[in-house]
Amino acid sequence: MKTKVAIIGATGYTGLELVKILVRHKQVQLSHLAVRRTPMPKYSEIFPELTKICDMQCSEIDADKICKDSDVIFFALPHKVTMTLMPSFLNKGKKIIDLSSDYRLKDVSTYEKAYGQKHEDATHVKDFVYGLPEVTKENIKKSQNIANPGCFPTSILLALYPLLKNKCINLEGIIADSKTGVSGGGREPKPDFHFPECNESVKPYRVGVHQHEPEIEQELGNMAGKNVDIIFVPHLISMTRGILSTVYADLKKEYSWQEIEALYKACYSNEPFVRLKAEGQYPQTKDTTNTNFCDIGFKIIGKKIVVMSAIDNLVKGASGQAVQNMNIMCGFDEREGIL
Amino acid sequence: MKTKVAIIGATGYTGLELVKILVRHKQVQLSHLAVRRTPMPKYSEIFPELTKICDMQCSEIDADKICKDSDVIFFALPHKVTMTLMPSFLNKGKKIIDLSSDYRLKDVSTYEKAYGQKHEDATHVKDFVYGLPEVTKENIKKSQNIANPGCFPTSILLALYPLLKNKCINLEGIIADSKTGVSGGGREPKPDFHFPECNESVKPYRVGVHQHEPEIEQELGNMAGKNVDIIFVPHLISMTRGILSTVYADLKKEYSWQEIEALYKACYSNEPFVRLKAEGQYPQTKDTTNTNFCDIGFKIIGKKIVVMSAIDNLVKGASGQAVQNMNIMCGFDEREGIL
Amino acid sequence: MKTKVAIIGATGYTGLELVKILVRHKQVQLSHLAVRRTPMPKYSEIFPELTKICDMQCSEIDADKICKDSDVIFFALPHKVTMTLMPSFLNKGKKIIDLSSDYRLKDVSTYEKAYGQKHEDATHVKDFVYGLPEVTKENIKKSQNIANPGCFPTSILLALYPLLKNKCINLEGIIADSKTGVSGGGREPKPDFHFPECNESVKPYRVGVHQHEPEIEQELGNMAGKNVDIIFVPHLISMTRGILSTVYADLKKEYSWQEIEALYKACYSNEPFVRLKAEGQYPQTKDTTNTNFCDIGFKIIGKKIVVMSAIDNLVKGASGQAVQNMNIMCGFDEREGIL
Amino acid sequence: MKTKVAIIGATGYTGLELVKILVRHKQVQLSHLAVRRTPMPKYSEIFPELTKICDMQCSEIDADKICKDSDVIFFALPHKVTMTLMPSFLNKGKKIIDLSSDYRLKDVSTYEKAYGQKHEDATHVKDFVYGLPEVTKENIKKSQNIANPGCFPTSILLALYPLLKNKCINLEGIIADSKTGVSGGGREPKPDFHFPECNESVKPYRVGVHQHEPEIEQELGNMAGKNVDIIFVPHLISMTRGILSTVYADLKKEYSWQEIEALYKACYSNEPFVRLKAEGQYPQTKDTTNTNFCDIGFKIIGKKIVVMSAIDNLVKGASGQAVQNMNIMCGFDEREGIL
Question: Which of A142, B329, C23, C300 gives 20 to 30 Å between its CA and that of A328?
Fold first, then answer.
């Protein structure tokens, strides 16, 4: 019998991406596509591209009904909204995977500073496991609730994990220069994402104050066992999908390319969704578009190492990774539906 | 002494384009950049790209003050808004050039049907000359008030003018298939113009019901001396600027390419902003980007003629043509500021 | 046991798309990816995006070996090259699906004129069935060799089929104005497809002389039972994938939208890959990107009908349709691997 | 009387940009557009966009004739080719501005390593002044021959100049992460610049081995009076024009934003083509497209400073800066033709 899966907040880009993946997933069936709309549309009326693929009727966000009908519940709502709704769904024996940022930061005051608002469900934050499979897979297997990582954090954490785990780099002075496609800004029209404004341009934004920075630092800190500060500068570029992060760090001693490669291989050779580039080759986002892969390449220049990672922000950076987490939690093949 | 020029509604894309042109125009100086904002910004605060080019303080839309300080007044406001403000500016000895559609359609009921609203200044419509210089230059010279053509109409009318003037084509069955960049939709963010929605896509819209269709038919009718019906299908494509119109018509008899070329040359050889392509060559919008040119090419296939025209929708399709009209009205070199 | 499938000429965009589809197809396994390279690479060395998806070793184009190891053989080579290689593969009991244009035109002199060269395998042309499943499915089922349709023809033929089948339109004066993404030009760098040349631009090309025109006319003629001439104007637009065709025809009499809709439904309701838009709605290429769908909408304007169809040129316009043909020939579910 | 100006190698993107600027420059007239073509075309036959703007006949690269007819000679040829032709033009009393990289690097062995070839005109390298006007204006005024800076170097040098001049930053560990549009790769079609390959993607390339790195280090060294090593990582993004460089350096002590701003103002307030962003605002390439501006913003994060600069790679990064150099050399208004 198929696992029943609900999506709360199915009208954004991550919701759409979840639906696209889940309708092809062999071990699940959709139970609810819950949205805040009146009157209630068919899903393909919101997204005509899914006509004949998902013509299911949407339903309202009714916690009791959704919990009754579902084994796994994905939250694809904006932050803030998520934490007001979440408590009604917790502790009912359902597996929860939250794509918002509301349960990622374990220190509530850090959350409140980063997002500029009070956390309204602070008591439950500790009940969520940060779901970056290549790093925290054993915890994911045992967890009931997953805080699915942000898109920038995914790209940066996977770039640095083998270096921090093996204590190869200084914990100070790490720089992450990220380039993201416009879909990362969500589906709501805004001046910055108006086609004539962002087409044929590149710009940095929220330099040093992006809300993903504390999330990155928290998880880097977990990898290092110590506090890590990074400089994070995101850039908006004129493409729809993809993130390329170029990460700069200081090696503690001299390493050959092959020595570092060995560390990355030790971490990722058995991981289905990380691909390492050969020496002198570097990732490009296009190779990961519409896939759950994270492609990683690196270059050593004196005592600096430059690590470059590419993902699709909506797949490995959001919905694909969410399904990967579900696969791990439910004991499915980790690749099911996303390879 | 320089001619003093005001722009009413300087915060849209056509207003911006006007400013870019006028600051380099040798015979004018800006008197007012009138906007609806509080507090009143410097123009370069709205458009940082104009820092060190136009740091002028904006001013409010005060008809008396603007008329007192200006010789020429450009209206770059949306339709509807324009006709409520216009009466206060008329008949004060100022030259008016209106980039909106409010005074283009001479039949008010046609306007009201096309734009779905009552015309609130119907009495003044007759006081505006339709300002398509290559067709109506003599009228423009003598006029006080200009209704500046729409972008689609400009591209289609210039494509067909020599054929209609010389009665080469049937007046029925003319088809105009136009492709426009996204800036034609204006500066306000909307779902259709959200980058991830219109990037990497092409779609037809308002098929057979676009508000520019009556304008095209009115002016084609003036050229032909008879009623002309067209089929007009605009398409939105993933680029910022440019319109390519591909126009299909039935020739009344067989013509050689050279015979038709001679008719286009007779109309356009002395026109500084129309360029004719050689046989077998066709226009592309890129060649006209940021210019006031309209490039035209054609192909005869049996008794059909296919005429293709390319313009920059914000220049020849709006602000460049408005300045061309000013140049003609004021007796300046027609090319000043726009070549 | 899985059906063994070879691809001859796997290094172009259609070859790549075939591989992407076939590696996920449940009833086939790849036998050969035959290329003209020395030394012979792994497929993922040519296309790093397929690392961990298809790391198979490529092989040379050895007819005997490929026929011995394969049940189905896809040709994804350029035209001209195809017809010199094809004879060695025919009549060996293998199912052949040719994505080139070499076996589509049944009149060899038409081919020779359109492609500007002698046909070097004229005797076998008649042995290929034109494989447009929504029109010729019964023939495909019985055929051994398929000439897979071109991308423009697919979009235009599906737009017009219900109208011609039901004799609703005049056979003269049909116009197809098509807009294509750049991948339609193939993988070889050329000036027209150099990013700075085609980005942010639109242009018509090969107006009235495109090599796909005779193919379109041949198949429209088959639908109509009579000779059909069309005016075909392709345009290159600045996107990677997708074709939108806007087709104009004269209705023989007045029809309501619902009457025409009924005819389209009769043809396509049971077809898994054609989707009809509701009244007032029109297709956009983005909805079909990376899918095998053809989305169709239409508008009646007096006695003209405007039919708009959208496909992904590399999927329904090439490799997806090729797999659809294989599915039909082999008795698989028609949707396998492509839905 | 107008200054006579020749362009050697007018068929590339920088040549085209030079022509576009020079035809509007009030104090010069074109004497030769020298190209390597047979038969010799009109310039607008190579670039139809310049029809009616520059229909001048091209001429061959005849040093005697060009020198006889010209006061200023721009070289817009690729490197390697330039140094074989240059000697015939030197020491004839003509002002030379070379847009290639052949005379930028003062250490010939560094050149030979960076460009992988012997320098064939080593004796003349010392006769060229590096022409970055905001830094070396006094030398430019007195020079006869200018080595016009590269596009990446321009963006990075202007970002760092006030910091190095004032000894605010450590000379080690400087990182420049640059994002460039595709036109930087030149006009010749190549796989990396094929539209479907670079559209909708971002990738790093030549990481740590880009040929512009020694040029950047040479000039940073001149600013600092000491050796400077940088990490330079260029990225190709899917747009036609523009470079954004994000530069990271370590401040020697704590500075307020206002203190650093004062240093930038001291360097650039009188410079017509550098614009400083207010605190919390950052440059975007779109604001500099088709202009000679360099927009600069910065952020201090602890002891790191992040400086972001945006230019149009073909204008301030090449041809606009070349004209700026000519204006300075010839005693024209520095802004003539480029503001």
Answer: C23
Q: Determine the distance in angstroms separating the CA of C278 from the nearest CA of chain D, rounded to an integer.
A: 31
Average pLDDT over residues D1-16: 97
Q: Which of D203, D237, D246 sits opposite A282 (nearest CB)?
A: D203
The subunits that touch chain B, with at least 3 C-beta pairs less than 8 Å apart, are A, C, D
ipTM of the complex: 0.97
- Determine the pLDDT at residue D1: 87
- In CATH terms, the fold of domain D3-149+317-330 is Rossmann fold (3.40.50)
Answer whether C240 sits within 8 Å of D199, measured CB to CB: yes
Residue A261 in this model has a pLDDT that exceeds 90: yes
Q: So where are chain A's domains? A: 3-148+317-330, 152-313
In chain A, the residue whose alpha carbon lies closest to the alpha carbon of B200 is A240
Task: Give chain A's mean pLDDT.
Answer: 97
The type of residue at A237 is I
- What is the pLDDT at residue C201? 98
User: Right CATH number for D152-313 from 3.30.360.10, 1.20.1090.10, 3.40.1000.70, 3.40.50.970?
Assistant: 3.30.360.10
Give the per-residue pLDDT at C1: 87
What is the arrangement of strands in the sheet containing B145-147, beginning at the earlier edge strand?
B28-34, B3-8, B72-75, B95-98, B145-147, B128-130
Average pLDDT, chain D: 97
Active-site residue (options: C54, C151, C168, C267): C151
- pLDDT of D235: 98
- Residue D151 falls in the annotated catalytic set: yes
Confidence of residue A330 (pLDDT cuts 50, 70, 90): very high
- Topology given in CATH for the domain delimited by A3-148+317-330: Rossmann fold (3.40.50)
Say yes or no to pLDDT of B272 above 90.
yes
Tell me which chains share at least 3 CB pairs under 8 Å with chain D.
Answer: A, B, C
Look at D282 and A175 and tell me if their CB atoms are within 8 Å.
Answer: no
Overall average pLDDT of the D248-253 stretch: 98
B43 burial via Cβ count (<10 Å: 0-12, 13-18, 19+): buried
B46 pLDDT band (50/70/90 cuts)? very high
CB C257 within 8 Å of CB C300 = yes
Q: Give the integer Cα–Cα distance in Å for A94 and A96.
A: 6
Query: Given a contact as 3+ CB pairs under 8 Å, which chains touch A?
Result: B, C, D
Distance CA A107, CA A118 (A): 12
pLDDT confidence tier of residue A299, bands split at 50, 70 and 90: very high
Answer yes or no: do C182 and D196 touch at CB < 8 A.
Answer: yes
Task: Identify the band that residue A1 occupies on the pLDDT scale cut at 50, 70 and 90.
Answer: confident
Q: pLDDT under 70 in chain C at which residues?
A: none
**Please, what is the angle between helix A257-268 and helix A151-165, to 10°?**
120
D interface with B, Cβ–Cβ < 8 A, is 48-49, 51-53, 200, 272, 275, 277, 281, 286-288, 290-291, 293, 295, 339
Whether residues D49 and B291 touch (CB distance < 8 A) is answered with: yes
Which of A51, A200, A339 faces C200 most closely, judged by CB atoms?
Answer: A200
C308-C312-C317-C321 Cα dihedral, nearest 10 degrees = -110
CA separation, residue D16 to residues B339, C194, D81, D183 (Å): 16, 16, 18, 12
Band of pLDDT at residue B74, cut at 50, 70 and 90: very high
Residue A303 Cα, gap to closest chain C Cα (Å): 29
Specify whether the CB–CB gap between B306 and B246 falls below 8 A.
yes
- Give the pLDDT of residue B1: 87
Residues of chain B contacting D53 with CB distance shorter than 8 Å? 339
Catalytic-role residue among D151, D168, D267, D294: D151
- DSSP, collapsed to helix, strand or coil, labels residue B188 as coil
pLDDT of residue B238: 97
In the beta sheet, which residues pair with residue C178? C234, C245
Find chain B residues with C-beta within 8 A of A187's C-beta. Answer: 194, 196
